[in-house]
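Example: MotA/TolQ/ExbB proton channel family protein.
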Amino acid sequence: MIWFADFFERGGPVLYAVLATSFLLWVLIIMRLWFFYIEKNQIHGRLMTDWRARTDRTSRNARYIRQAWVGRYYLEATRTMPLLGTLIAICPLLGLLGTVTGMIQVFDVLAATGTGNARAMASGIAQATLPTMAGLVVALSGLYFRSRFQRLADRSKQELADKLPIVEEFA
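Written out as structure tokens, the predicted fold is:
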């Protein structure tokens, strides 16, 4: 844990904002994983039972009800996607903020000591690069999960629509 504290000390205060954003992002990712791998099957099962219990599965009204159920499920499946996208977009920007604050520190050292003190400039350079790296790593991991969740939502919406068939009557 000493390396963790050292990492945050060298990265500067912006790294704490990246950590907080990362924490929130991973809470949302775990919530979506729980939804797609645990709750999805329960919701599908409940909707299939409700659909089979209906006596009317052929009318226009039944089609609208089915469409509303599938749409409501899709809204639930994609509920946190906008927030995930926002957090993913914020992470590189926080990294850029860390770069700017680190470079300001480098320029302060240059103004105070001149160009000859490379050791004094090194902490500012570390403060400039570590938040950028951390913000990009968090954003890349978030992008992977967001695209995966979008595919899972689309696929499970189609599965649900297939499990709630419209019974055609030919008479």
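The mean pLDDT is 89.
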